[in-house]
Design goal:
Elements: E1 17-18, E2 27-29, E3 32-35, E4 38-40, E5 43-46, E6 49-54, E7 57-60, E8 65-69, E9 71-76, E10 80-83, E11 88-92, E12 102-106, E13 114-117, E14 124-138, E15 149-158
Parallel strand pairs: 1-3, 2-5, 3-6, 4-7, 5-8, 6-9, 7-10, 8-11, 9-12, 10-13, 11-14, 12-14, 13-14, 14-15
C-alpha cells in the first residue's frame, strides 16, 4: 500500500534543548524541542503545538494523566514512545493546518525501534500514529474520539480491543486510499 502521509513536510527541528518536567506534580508543558526523552508522572497538560522529541524515550508511567488538544509529537534522532498500562492519556491532533491529523510522527530516518501505546479504558488518542520505519505495539483497549485513530507503521501489533472509524474528517484526517486488496500476514 502507498504511504498516505509520505508527501507531508516534517517539522523543523530547531531551538534549544528543553527537558520534560519530572516528578509527580502537575505541570503545563509548552511546545518546543525536548531532548533525551523523559518520564512523565502525575498530571501533565500539553498546550497546542508541535513537540519535537529529539532522542531518547518519551515515556509515561502508570501514574501519569496526560492531556492535550491540538498537539503533534514529532520524534527524531532515534526517539521512541513507551506509554505504560494504567496511564490515563487523552491527546488529540490539530484539526487544521500543516500538521492536521498528525498526533505522533516519527521521521523517516528513525528505524528499528518499537513504540508502545498502552493506556487505560478511558484513554483516547485522536489522530494519526505515523511511524513509517518503526514498529507500533497498540496494547490498550482505547482509541480516538469516535474511533478516529489511524496507525501507519512498518509493523503494527494489536493486543486488546479498540474501535476504529472509517470517517475521521472531523479529527483532521482525510480519507486514506487503500489498494485494491488488503492482506494480513502472520
Amino acid at each position: 500500500a502507498a504511504d498516505p502521509f509520505d508527501a507531508l513536510t516534517e517539522p523543523v527541528v530547531a531551538g534549544p534543548c528543553l527537558t520534560l518536567p519530572g516528578g509527580a506534580g502537575a505541570a503545563t508543558i509548552t511546545p518546543g524541542r525536548y531532548c533525551g526523552g523523559g518520564i512523565l508522572k502525575g498530571n501533565k497538560t500539553f498546550s497546542p503545538g508541535v513537540y519535537v522529541i529529539d532522542g531518547g524515550t518519551f515515556r509515561a508511567n502508570a501514574t501519569a494523566n496526560l492531556a492535550g488538544s491540538g498537539v503533534t509529537f514529532f520524534l527524531t534522532n532515534g526517539a521512541s514512545v513507551d506509554f505504560n498500562g494504567s496511564a490515563n492519556i487523552v491527546l488529540s491532533a490539530p484539526t487544521s493546518g500543516a500538521n492536521s491529523g498528525m498526533l505522533f510522527w516519527s521521521d523517516d530516518s528513525n528505524s528499528f525501534a518499537s513504540n508502545k501505546f498502552n493506556g487505560n479504558a478511558s484513554s483516547m488518542l485522536t489522530g494519526a500514529l505515523y511511524f513509517p520505519k518503526q514498529e507500533v505495539e497498540f496494547l490498550g483497549n482505547f482509541s480516538g474520539a469516535g474511533g478516529c485513530l489511524r496507525i501507519v507503521a512498518d509493523t503494527i501489533k494489536f493486543t486488546g480491543s479498540s474501535t476504529r472509524s472509517a470517517d475521521c474528517t472531523a479529527a483532521g484526517l482525510n480519507s486514506m486510499p487503500l489498494p485494491g486488496a488488503v492482506t494480513l500476514v502472520e
